[in-house]
Amino acid sequence: METIMACLVGLLFTIGTYLVLSRQMLRIIFGLSIISHAVNLLILTSGGLKTGSAPLLDEKMAGFTDPLPQALILTAIVINFAVTALLLVLSYRSYQIFKTDDMERLRGNPDE
Amino acid sequence: MKPNDVILQSVTKVTVIIIFTFSVYLFLNGHHHPGGGFIGGLSTAAAIVLLFLAFDIEKVRENFQIDFKKLAALGVLIAIGTGFTGMLAGDPFLTQYFNDKNLPIFGKTELATALIFDTGVALAVIGTAVSIILSISEGDSLWKR
Amino acid sequence: MNNLLILPIAFPLFIGMLLIIFRKNIWLHRLLSPVACIFPGMVALILMNQIKDSGIQTLQLGGWQAPYGISLVADMFAAILLFVTSIVSLCCLLYAFHSIGKEREKYYFYPLILFLITGVNGAFLTGDLFNLYVFFEVFLVSSYVLITLGGTRNQLRESLKYIMINVISSAFFLVGVAYLYAVTGTLNFAHLSIRVAEAGQDGLITTISFLFLIVFSLKAGLFLFYWLPGSYSVPPGAIAAIFAALLTKVGIYAIFRMFTLIFYHQPQVTHMGIGILAALTMILGAMGAIGYRDLKKILTYNVIISVGFILIGLVAFTEQSLLGSIYYLIHDMIIKALVFLIGATIIGLTGTSKLKDMSGLIRTHPALGWMFFIAVLSMVGIPPLSGFLGKLYITKGAFAASYFWLGGFGLLASIFILYSLIKVFMDVFWGETVMSEDEEKGTTKGVMLPIVLLTGISLALGLGAEGIHEYVLIAAKGLLDPNQYIFAVLDKGGI
Questions:
Q1: Which residue range is the domain that position A71 belongs to?
Q2: What stretches pass through the bilayer (chain A) (predicted)?
Q3: Which residues from A are below 8 Å from C150, CB to CB?
Q4: Are C282 and C394 in contact (CB under 8 A)?
Q5: Per-residue pLDDT, C492
Q6: What is the predicted ipTM?
Q7: Residue A84 located in a structural domain
């Protein structure tokens, strides 16, 4: 299972990197988002993938899954959500002002 | 042209109640089972966003006069405040207390300060999520003008 | 346990949230935000004395024992940085009162600064890798908003790049966290230190350490600084000053923490790597500082040079060099805030940041000119000013550890700093006075107070270096001896 997850994380990283390297702003934002998801999967895998019940006292089971990676992912998702929202608003704003979503045209300082 | 969204609106009227109830359930369930302030707040925010979608934002805001940014700030204040109560008793920051009490209707109930903390979290989540959606959509209406 | 530790984090956050609720009362913002800046400094002072008397202070949040709970740890290094952060942020706020403008004040400027301080203080105090990530995000998200606040064309363009770079580096941070958790099974610094020491720092862990080096280099501007000159030159003066003084320094703090507490077993690989990066940083920074004819650009490249210089102390890794690094870090936070504020005042006066368009300001503004001159001498390290002691100790430490080339680069960089800043001084303040006082675009009224304050603190730090030597020595010894930190956090009896 870990091998499949590793391949999936790699695939997501590849897609994310490809998108980040493109010129359109929206594609870059999607790319960043996909990379963050890949990282979340990686954290999930890092705790070890095993079958067990939720780590709650009520559950009378022998094996428990590791709750820490899940807590980390939850935090990471929330932060990623906030940053992506900010990026989307910003990119929209800059599209309104610069009339372009091409990062090539947003290079450098015109008054230099 | 105003789109015809009668179906969406009448479905929303029913489902919003269900979502709100479910989010209260999730919120209270969180003490010992999966659930809690975060997910409860998020589903409440989902219900409010559904209202925004089905009816107009202005219309909803007329009946729902809350500044969601302030709501989020209030939530964080409550959460930090419960952290400070532990300090007053001489325990580490964020120490939570609980006690079993006999309440008039509910019977023997476990009362915990963690619930107040979770209320703060829920308010913060509702406030943040809704204000993100609102600021994106307000930018959109600026664009149309 | 010591509940004081939470106050530098919780108090600014609390006040910030309060200010959001009372958004309309600008006077309340102006009243409460300095209080929220000073208070953590006072706590830091108390902490410094407690640490001196009874060792490293810890707090296990909610009473959950380390390594399972979240722990906050204040060692001397963190407490000193907390104190300096408080001073610097207070001065930048005082500067902002007169320069930031009504529009930005209304759009949550003060709460955002307070959240930034929350994040910075949290990053200094946390004893846990994932919380380090969270606090990094807290101040990064505030900085994203602060850098775009106002929404001018340049700000939008640079902020997009700034945010994208930082999102990528945060992703790498999490990758590092995931790998480290998979290898060691813990995220508490003290526990990590034990586990890594037990298992031995093999190739895998060294690779992970390099991943963290990349992440913190991006934040600190060590070699991977290409985003820095652009994004630090677009926001208004007060914001740029607080960025230059605090943000890169948190990255440096994180590098110090990781490579003195956890990954200290293979210095010939990791510390050598940092050394090469530091040397490259100084060379490239110096090139930038000399090459540009733009005040803002020269100042930002000077930030980069000093990052490289401070890290020489870590590379040499002796008591003397670490002592120098801490001295220089304190000095650099204060002096960078000072030169950025002076730079912003000059730009406010002349309305341009190009050196060729300004000249002869010394006649109309002698005080500003001489304070800039003091700052320049201090940055170069002329005794008895504040930069001297740090530079002396770092260079001596590097030579003593036979890093002759690194010490040499450090000294060479000082010459370039001198050249670039004296060029600024001559172009801006000397020469013919082309501008009479009525032609000036801005005013120095009100903004001189924080500048004078910072100059005074910098002078005091230089002349009274002996007075804080005791504290800095404890900090340097603490960095050299990870066991102090481990025993303080994982002490089973004391909590």
A1: 2-49+64-103
A2: 6-21, 28-49, 69-90
A3: none
A4: no
A5: 54
A6: 0.93
A7: yes
With an 8 Å Cβ cutoff, the interface of chain C facing chain A consists of: 130, 134, 137, 141, 144-145, 148, 151, 153-154, 156-157, 159-160, 163-164, 167-168, 170-171, 174-175, 177-179, 181-182, 187, 230, 294
The set of residues, in sequence order, having a beta carbon less than 8 Å from that of B93 and lying 6+ positions away, is: B83, B84, B86, B87, C3, C6, C10, C59, C61, C62
Nearest CA in chain A to B30: A56
Per DSSP, which regions of C180-308 are E strands?
none
The pLDDT value recorded for residue C226 is 87
Q: How confident is the model over B94-142, as pLDDT tens digits?
A: 888 888 777 777 777 777 888 899 999 999 999 999 988 888 777 554 4
Number of structural domains (chain A) is 1
Query: Which tokens belong to B119?
Result: 């209320």
**CATH number of A69's domain:** 1.10.287.3510
Q: Which helix (H) or strand (E) holds C361?
A: helix C361-364
**CA–CA distance from C153 to each of A106, A108, B143 (Å)?**
10, 12, 17
Question: Among residues B126, B113, B60, B110, which one has the least CA distance to residue B84?
Answer: B113
Instruction: At C367, list the tokens.
Output: 């005080």
> Across C239-291, where does the E strand assignment appear?
none
Distance between CA atoms of C51 and C290, rounded to whole angstroms?
43
Long-range contacts of the stretch C60-63 (C-beta < 8 A, 24+): C60/B92, C60/C1, C60/C495, C61/B92, C61/B93, C61/B94, C61/C6, C62/B86, C62/B92, C62/B93, C62/B94, C62/B95, C62/B96, C63/B91, C63/B92, C63/B95, C63/C1, C63/C495
If one counts every other C-beta atom within 10 angstroms of the C-beta of residue C230, the result is: 18
Neighbours of C304 (CB within 10 A): 25
For chain B, strand residue ranges (E) read 98-103, 107-112
pLDDT of B1 above 70: no
CA distances from C309 to C278, C280, C459, C464, C473 (A): 7, 11, 21, 22, 19
Model pLDDT, residue C434: 77
- Mean pLDDT score of chain A, rounded to an integer? 86
CB C374 within 8 A of CB C455: yes
* A19 inside domain: yes
Alpha-carbon distance B106 to C201, whole Å? 57
User: Distance (Å, rounded) from C-alpha C7 to C-alpha C66?
Assistant: 20
